[in-house]
Amino acid sequence: MTSNEIKALTGRYIMNTYGRFHVAIDHGQGATLYDPEGNAYIDFTSGIGVTDLGYGYQPWVDAITAQAKKLGHVSNLFYTEPAARLAEILCRRTGESCVFFANGGGEANEGMIKLARKYSFDKYGKGRAAIVTLNNSFHGRTITTLMATGQEVFHNYFFPFTEGFRYADANSLESLEAAAGDDVCAVMMEVVQGEGGVLPLDKDYVQAVAKLCAERDWLLLVDEVQTGVGRTGSLFAFQQYGILPDVVSFAKGIAGGLPMSGILANEKCRNVLGPGTHATTFGANPVCAAAGLVVQETLTDEFLAEVQAKGAYLRQGIEDLDLPCFGKTRGMGLMIGIEVKEGYNKGEIASKLIENGLLVLTAGPGMRLLPPLVITKEEMDKGLAIMKKALG
After folding, report:
1. Cα torsion 254, 257, 262, 263: sign
2. Cβ partners under 8 Å of residue 104, min gap 6
3. Nearest-angstrom CA–CA distance, 68 and 47
């Protein structure tokens, strides 16, 4: 099909819930995507942080193919090897004790919220279920995770929302104390606020929150849906903050492009969700888990060090362009935010770059870049050249 035919068919039969850019994607290789007509696009988005191994990565393709031939799906009422092996690797690499596998980020965060409330109920009974999240956060698009999101713009249309969430300012322990109370069971945060604008939290603040949670027996919940699986230059971003959360959610890059997510829990929380208290049909799918094993095999310590180096190179390259519309960059690893100066429109900037062959994202008040972790220097340089040409 041609690009125009794909767009027309999409408009006719798929719900119009996305503000799509006018590009149809047919195939890709590395960090470069192509439309049906063969036009190339350097990808600084990786499917919003999902395709961390890029496109056409042969070990990933081979693992999926082999597992699909062997076993595509079986109920979680039975045991499968790929999920068990992936869980072991994740626990060993993080220091957490157990895993629950799900399908998407919102579902993972729902499971994390359920675990926190049941932990408190089991120990203290009813009346201790409030969760404090941070202003400017984003935790998903289910009814519950929308309310967990600390942005008022998301608290509309879908009433009634799930109760039991309060909000505090990021990097302010005083604000957190003011939002707390005897009814709190957990604090939930992204250590880098992704949708809010790629805003890393202060390390001292995160460590102080972890200490406060331990003192008051609040669970520390860290949402790593976007920051996890190598995106920030470590397997999980929390590892750069010197903490071990009670529960961590993950998704996006975990299976390199297939739908998979989950939560990691520490020893204190490993038995909170027992048989019958939580479940999912497709979680721990063996094909997705096989893909996840390839991701873990690829994300060695040396590979993650390269992610940090690539992020530093790309950020410096953007700032060296000295474009009139861009200010400073920020972020960790290959999770990069760019300040958009007053008088310029981030959506128009994104459209102009895409028209010139560079796929980018927006977030909060600025731009957001999430390239595949395997992106080459040549592909980064091509992206920078497009920026200079389109915006200079």
Report:
1. positive
2. 251, 259, 261
3. 23
Specify the pLDDT at position 74.
97
Peptide bond into 160 cis (omega under 30): yes
Question: What mean pLDDT is predicted for residues 223-229?
Answer: 98
Please name which of 228, 284, 304, 292 lies closest in space to residue 60, comparing C-alpha atoms: 292
Q: List the one residue out of 374, 382, 387, 368 whose CA is nearest residue 42.
A: 382
Both structure tokens of 91: 């626990």
Q: CB atoms < 10 A from the CB of 305, how many?
A: 12
161-190 per-position pLDDT tens digit: 999 999 999 999 999 999 999 999 999 999
CB 374 within 8 A of CB 54: yes
Distance between CA atoms of residues 186 and 276, nearest Å: 23
Q: Is 200 helix (H, G, I), strand (E, B) or coil?
A: strand
> What's CA 222's distance to the chain center, in Å?
11
The string of DSSP codes covering 116-129 is HHHHHHHHH-TT--
Tell me how far apart the alpha carbons of residues 385 and 382 are, in angstroms, rounded to a whole number: 5
Residue range 57-114, pLDDT digits in tens = 999 999 999 999 999 999 999 999 999 999 999 999 999 999 999 999 999 999 999 9
Query: Cα(345)–Cα(64) distance, rounded to whole angstroms?
Result: 41
This prediction's pTM:
0.97
CB atoms within 10 A of CB 75: 9
Question: In whole angstroms, what is the distance from residue 165 CA to residue 167 CA?
Answer: 7
**Chain mean pLDDT for the chain:** 98
Measured in degrees and rounded to the nearest 5, phi and psi for residue 27 equal -160, 175
Distance CA 338, CA 41 (A): 20
Q: What is the pLDDT of residue 190?
A: 98
- Give helix then strand counts, H and E, for the chain: 12, 17
